[in-house]
Amino acid sequence: MEDLPDLGLFPLDLVLLPGERVPLHLFEPRYRRLFADCTLEDRPFVLVLTEPSGGTARVGCTARFETLVRRFEDGRLNVIVRGVEPVEILEETEGRLYFSARVRPLPDETAAADPALAEDVLARFRALAGLAGDQAPGLPEGVPLSYAVAGAFELATGPKQRLLESRDEGERLGILRDLLSAADREVRHARMAAQRATTNGRVTTP
Q1: Could you list the residue range(s) of the whole structural domain that residue 181 is in?
Q2: Does residue 88 lie within any of the structural domains?
């Protein structure tokens, strides 16, 4: 395993996807040290989901500290991190203040997904985001569409971890299509409930 990168681990109760940006508050000394090491050495780290059992998921996402938002007088930091690529955590290592492990990159194993499926996911995304059909979705570039769209919504950790672990873009888009469909139904139900509340329970039709 000598050829595999040895990277710092940041276990959290969240899943980061490639291309996604999330804010973090660093207050523990070990993670402030992780920030310093990664910044000085221009190295990524791995954000990995903590599991109910107390361990961590087998697959995480490499990330980079992209922006230092604020440095407090007591050393705490507010930062923005950006997801880079999925990795498998193979073997924990020692010698640092923070957790670390050797990791293996996990590229996709299949060809590009069906264009019709990709367009369906994009259309559902635009509808939920309130975008017209010809508006640019404003998604991050350089990552698979499934990750770009999923990172734009608040998704539960379970489905996001499934997306991160899948090595098939078509499978990920299928999962995402179902998630977006469910979200759309919830939005419609919420709108209908709000309409009923303002009309004493009666829903008007055009």
Answers
A1: 115-198
A2: yes
